[in-house]
Specification:
81% helix, mainly alpha, ESCRT-III subunit protein snf7, Helix Hairpins, 230 residues
Length: 230
Amino acid sequence: MKLFFGKKKETTPKDAIIGLRENLSMLEKRQAHLQNQIDQAVQTARANVTKNRKAAIAALKRKQQLEAQLDKLTASRMTLEAQAMAIEGANVNLETMKAMQKGAEALKGIHKDLSIDKVDQTMDDIRDQMDLANDISDAISRPEIFGVNLDDDELNAELEILEQEELDKQLLKAAKAPEFLPNAPTAAIHQPQPQPQRQQQQQQQQQPSTANTESEDELEELSRAMRIAS
């Protein structure tokens, strides 16, 4: 038998869902057909209810049989729909699990050659290389290579000497500054007075004071009185 028929093909979730949807579509058409027959049986019973009682009863019996078939189809359809929904949900879960498994395998492949010890060793190597690069840079930038040997102590000493010389110059300038102070009042005395003040002083010198004029008038009156009395 296996030579003629071979191994049975495994049904995939996609194929199962497609088959269920096709069966559901067929059941839906069958339900519509039965419902049309039920409606026709009802019309036949109404039409013969007064004319032909036997025909009306036969139509009602047919209606009951059709309704029984319709109920079974409805139940079968509900079962197929529930199964299709379950398969679709299971298929979604399956695809999700496959994607997660692929992600886990990818992470395993990435971390296969990695470990904490290897990472620490790599970081140590990087730090060593950076220290070596700094040492090389410092060695290249040293002035001793070009015959120039700079001593920080000598430079600081020379700088202190220059600062002391500059301080001495400032002290000498401060010591010479008071020699010009005695001439300051003389210069202030010989400063010209403002023109309005000088004119006011000249007017005061030219005009006699009021007190002197009153004294002279009193003397004249006294001498005149003495002459009259004599």
